[in-house]
Amino acid sequence: MIARRTLLGSAAVGLIAFQSRLASAATRPDATLPNLAAKAVPIGVEERKARLAKVQRLMAEAGIGALLVEPGSSLVYFTGVEWWRSERLTAALIPVEGEVTAVTPYFEAPSIRESLAIPAEVRTWDEHENPLALVVGWLQERKLADKPVAIEETVRLFIVDGLQKALPGVRTVNGAGVVRGCRMHKTPAEIALMQVAADITIAAFRDASKRIKAGMTPADINALIAGATAQLGGKGGDALILLGEASAYPHGSGKPQQVREGEVILLDGGCLVHGYVSDISRSFVFGEPSKRQREVWAQVRQGQQVAFEAAQLGKPCGAVDDAVRGWYEKIGYGPGYRLPGLSHRTGHGIGMDGHEPVNLVHDEATPLAEGMCFSNEPGLYIPGSFGIRLEDCFYMTASGPRWFSTPPSSIDRPFG
To answer: What is the 3-state secondary structure (H, E, C) of 293-313?
Structure first.
């Protein structure tokens, strides 16, 4: 910097500093953005107790004695404990009847007790001890050792293997059925939090879009979105930004990208509000869209509508994907997952995780039911040219699907 200042002289340095301040101002979020999360209501104790009652009922119906859950969104869902996964076992043991027990290293116990959002016993193990022996002791004490132990579907193999070695003959079963039976069906409180997250993401995208300039990189645009998201009260906010040809590849390209006149800008992101997420995509053009860009955009928007109308209570989730592919094939795309066309599923479940079971994909037989939440993102991708993805999430009500975020009506008004 000293050498640069000496060569340029004070006047040139002053000009550079002024330009830098202008650029910084252009990338800052609007100072008037409101905190949309300020009045969001977190999940309360009574709702978590109702979740435990439901999972215990499902366990009883399935003949399961206990459910083991390690850190992750399911642990938060049932207990409120936000923890990380390591080689040291921390887990919740949910019996078919009675109070939950948390197992954790001795030195972590104070933090676990502080984090628990439900009444629960805490049992500890020391560093030289086998924590799965502690689990076995608990099962035997509760007279559950001869009943199947359900394992939450994301639990790591070394934990299951350790349990089987500590209690030879133990019957472990997949806990996906009982956990999904709870988490797949969102309550009004959960849907309200997802609605706030969606509102924040749309507002952040709208604010950032007004500040996009020629020559900006994906990192520049992501900084705009992240800054606006934080000011609006959302956590996270990092977005996938695809520019130009990179928009033709659903998860982008490693090639350098920058905003250019007449090229597609694709934004795909979300945020967290009290543990619940949003996931929204918008595609538009920097400058004036071409006739082909307008055509493909309108086709994707119609694809979204086809999916939305196909999402009816009792129908299999796969029927939504089939309806979209049928529409695209009629207008010359595909067939199936072939390109140009839609190379990925129409949508995924969403809630505490950005991607949750189940998906809107061919052959998925799970029937659509009240409280289920999904993304709706039937993008069209033209390799070597561009892609368009519009993504809005919806939830199932007693009268059918309802949007979290309203899809745009025009490529010229991507944020309404």
So the answer is: HHHHHHHHHHHHHHHHHHCCC
Q: Provide the Cα torsion 318, 181, 279, 238; round to 10°.
A: -130
pTM of the entire predicted model: 0.92
Cis before 335? omega within 30: yes
Instruction: Average pLDDT across each block of 10 residues of the chain; the chain has 416 residues. List them in order.
Output: 30 34 49 94 98 98 98 98 98 98 98 98 98 98 98 98 98 98 98 98 98 98 98 96 98 95 98 98 98 98 98 98 98 98 98 98 98 98 98 98 97 94
Give the DSSP letter of residue 31: T
CA distance 115 to 361: 37
Written as six digits, the tokens of 161 are 């293997």
CA 307 – CA 305 distance, rounded (Å): 5
Ramachandran assignment for 137, one of left (phi > 0), alpha (psi -120 to 50 degrees), beta (any other): alpha
